[in-house]
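Intended use. Records like the one below are meant for learning the mapping from a protein sequence to its folded structure. Do not use them to infer anything beyond what is encoded.
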Amino acid sequence: MAHIIVVGNEKGGAGKSTVSMHIATALARMGFKVGVLDLDLRQKTFGRYVENRKNFSAKSGLDLPSPDYHELPPADPAQLQPGENPYDQRLSAAIAALEPDHDFIMIDCPGSHTRLSQVAHSLADTLVTPLNDSFVDFDLLAKIDEDGKKILGPSVYSEMVWNARQLRAQAGLKPIDWIVLRNRLGAQHMVNKEKMGKALDNLAKRIGFRVAPGFNERVIFRELFPRGLTLLDLKDIGVTSLNISNVAARQELRDLIKALNLPGVEPNF
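Structure written out for the chain above:
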């Protein structure tokens, strides 16, 4: 069966689509077949990213390794069971269509709580939660005291992941491997940054996730999106000499793929 990777949280602006595209493309470059779904049915940032890549490849005559993007199929009222949610049927049908021919299925969730996102989390073998390095985003995971030191209790997103874990346990499925990415990090060392690190390490032990490094804040990510490109495509488009920032960003991606510890995957780029 395909290994399902879900990228999600319930807050926008954390870089979910950028993370999703880089993981999916890295896996495709390593020879894996990757199917991808975008559950943000209104914005579709991840879907547009893949479409931009397809259009750029066609225009430039390049054959860039790419994930296989699928739209959710429409619900079939005739196939709905009594009380079944149409969104559940749509997601199940999409997964069933992708599983036979793909090694990995990447699901990018919207930055809000939806039925689709809730169900997708319960399907995750690996859950990746990008988090901006601030206590504003930390509040997504847990409530803390005014000093940022004492954890007062889980927040709504953590409770949703807990419920997803319970559903998987009841179904006899293996536990979710939950990774929280410290994403869009600033280069400077700040007291707040150190507090965030300690708070995340403390919370990780309590609610069961692993902390991994994400991407630093870099202009190049915004420049790559319109062409559907990733850090791994720069040499393909004629960038033969990478600057220090680009080299560092590629290392961040390599470290991220390694930290995910996906089955059969060893970064070779």
